[in-house]
Every structure is written in structure tokens, then in C-alpha cells.
Amino acid sequence: MGKALVRSFLAQSMRLTGILRSSETAAKNQLNILCYHRILPTAQKAAYFCPDLVVTPEAFHNHCQTLAEFYRVLPLAEAVATLQQEQGNETGSGNNGNAAADKPIVALTFDDGYVDNLKYAAPILAEFEQRATFFVVSGLMGTSTPPWYDLVARCVLDLAEREEGCLADGSPAELALGLSAVEVVEGAKAFSPELRKSLAERLCDRLDGAPQFADEDLVMNAQQLRELQKQGHEIGSHSVSHEILPLLSDQDLEEEIQLSKQQLEDGLQQPISSFCYPNGDFDDRCLEMVEKHGYDQAVTTRNGSNKAATAPFTLKRRFIHEERLADGQGRPSASLLRAQTSGLLDRLLRRGGQDA
Ligand SMILES: [Zn+2]
């Protein structure tokens, strides 16, 4: 509660002192990119193994409404191009009266490509005539297989309901001695794909079969992605299988980057120009590879703003955490969202560097 009150106080004083306005004026020279994952109603958010990755439709509606007033919301590729163009014009002719440029640009991005994005986020974006970028795990497109971390986490949660605990390799433990779903998933991120597969199999065996997943917990199919495209949204690649790229061999890494682009382009009949590193992890090979295979920009999970001159393959983003952007009563705070979007909140709370 202490932290919530501090945030609430910050929100009020920012409005009163005008520093929010000046932060947004400074943001006109920046590209701020917001990072969302899932949009789900409260009950489903609470049941998800990592509720921090979920924003409810009510809060998202509020976010879009606030952004509509203070920002120009664009898909990532368009945002990068627009910023470059406007800054080019500015150095050439002085900033003479581009009315649209009165507001700073913000790009909205959604990671993983869950069906919930189409079901809950798209109608809200349409209401405010906003367009966004959706990063899709191409190998799961239209399959009944959830992302590996969701399968592992659900198994651990289902076992816990049966009072059974779980160790890092999926073997049984007393519940009190077992790891949480988040801990098992975090540990498994360092596993090889084979080891991770055997972890999932062991967990499913202990449950006498794989848990069933609802439609909105799966990755969108090509038709659903085309529907988003038709509404003006951008589809980007989030690799083929959401592997941690720096752990892969050169050959596997290239496949994740090249094949995902090809699969999405085949399904959508449109060029794919944006990439998102799974888990935010990348190395020099990844940067070379995304450029080699014709992407124009790529986003990380590093926290911060970008300038027009920022390297286009290591773009920073700002993570959207519903509760941290809520006021003392737990309602979405327009001031806190604006402060987070422009980078003011990080500066006030002296948060720099990496975002989780
Ligand atoms: Zn992801």
C-alpha cells in the first residue's frame, strides 16, 4: 500500500507542477514503445501463472483513452518511419507547423500473439481508431499447442491443486518443498529444447495427460491475423518457437529468424518487417541475422526510450504493468500511464537500465 500511495501522490503532483507536460514535449523527439502481452478479464488474469503479464480490458480501455488524448498511437514500423521522416524534415527546414507532430508518437506492441489480443484488445483499439503491432510465435500459429511456458506453468498449478509439488526437472516433491510455476518456468528457460520437452512430458504424465487450453490462451491462426491486418494493425515475428535465441546454434538461430518471417509472410501475403526477441534475449549474431533476413527493426525488453538515431535492431520498450499504473484506489491513473509512456516515471523513481 505504501508504494501505491507514493504513486498516487506522484500522479497528483506531476499534474499540478506541469512536469508531465514538459516530459511529453521532450518525448516529441523520441520513440516510446509500450510492451503489452495479454488482455484478459480479471478472473482469468488471477488464474494465470504470471498475472503481471496481463492487463484487464477495463484498464486497457482506460490506457487507450488516455493515449488518444496525448499521443499519436502507431504500429511500430510506421512509428519508426514517421519519427525518422519528421526529424529529417526538422533538420532540413526548421519545425514549421506540422499539426500532427504536436503530439509525441507512441507505438503499442503485444508479445506472443494470443487470441485474447484479437478478442479483447482489438475492439478497444478500434474504438479509439488506434493501430498496434502484434508479435506472433509463428510455429504455434493456429495450433492447439500453447507456448511451452504456459503448458509447464499450467501443469505445475494443476499439480499444486492436487497438493503435489514439483522440482525443477518436473519430478515430484512435497508441495511445501516444490517450486512455484514462475520458478519452474524461469529455470526451464535455460534448458535445451529437448530437456524442456521432457520436463513438459514428465509433468503431463503426472497429470495423466496434457491440460486443455481455451481458445484465447492459444496463438492466433492466419485468418485471425489477417483480420487484425485488415483493421490496419501490423503483424511482426516473435520467432518460430520462442526459444531463447542466444542459446541456439547458428543454424537453429537462423531458422528461428528466417523461417518465422517466411511462415508469417506465406500466411498473410504481406511483408513482415518487425522482429521481437523472445524473452528479450539477443546477442550480436541475432542482430546480424535480423538485418540479413530483411527485417527493418527489432524490439528488446530493455527499458527506455529511443531516438530516431537509435540502432533499429535494439529498440527499447516500456513494460505496462496494470497495478503499478493504478492510483491509491487501484483504478488506472491517466497521469501514471502518461508518466510511464514518456519515461518520466522511471526518472522520478530512478529506475533505469533493464526492465524485468
Ligand atoms: Zn514472448
Descriptive notes:
The chain is α/β, with parallel strands linked by helices and 356 residues long. Helix content is 46%, strand content 15%. The protein contains 14 helices and 13 strands. The chain folds into 2 domains: 2-137 and 219-348, Glycoside hydrolase/deacetylase (TIM Barrel, Alpha-Beta Barrel), CATH 3.20.20; 148-206, no CATH class. Strand 5, helix 6 (115-127) and strand 6 (133-136) form a beta-alpha-beta unit. The strands form 3 sheets. Strands 1, 4, 5, 6, 9, 10, 11, 12 and 13 form a 9-stranded mixed β-sheet that branches. Helix 2 (19-26) packs parallel to helix 13 (334-342), helix 7 (148-161) runs parallel beside helix 9 (193-206) and helix 11 (250-268) packs parallel to helix 12 (284-292). The chain has helices spanning 2-17, 19-26, 42-47, 57-70, 76-93, 115-127, 148-161, 181-188, 193-206, 222-230, 250-268, 284-292, 334-342, 344-348; strands at residues 30-36, 38-39, 54-55, 72-74, 105-112, 133-136, 164-166, 172-174, 234-237, 274-276, 297-303, 306-307, 315-319. Zinc ion is lined by residues 111-112, 238, 242, 278. Zinc ion binds next to strand 5.
Structure summary:
By secondary structure, the chain is α/β, with parallel strands linked by helices.
Break the fold down into its secondary structure elements and pairings.
Layout: H1 2-17, H2 19-26, E1 30-36, E2 38-39, H3 42-47, E3 54-55, H4 57-70, E4 72-74, H5 76-93, E5 105-112, H6 115-127, E6 133-136, H7 148-161, E7 164-166, E8 172-174, H8 181-188, H9 193-206, H10 222-230, E9 234-237, H11 250-268, E10 274-276, H12 284-292, E11 297-303, E12 306-307, E13 315-319, H13 334-342, H14 344-348
Parallel strand pairs: 1-5, 1-13, 2-3, 4-5, 5-6, 6-9, 10-11, 11-13
Antiparallel strand pairs: 1-12, 7-8
Helix pairs in contact: 1-13, 2-13, 4-6, 7-8, 7-9, 11-12
Bound molecules: zinc ion.
Residues 111-112, 238, 242, 278 line the site of zinc ion.
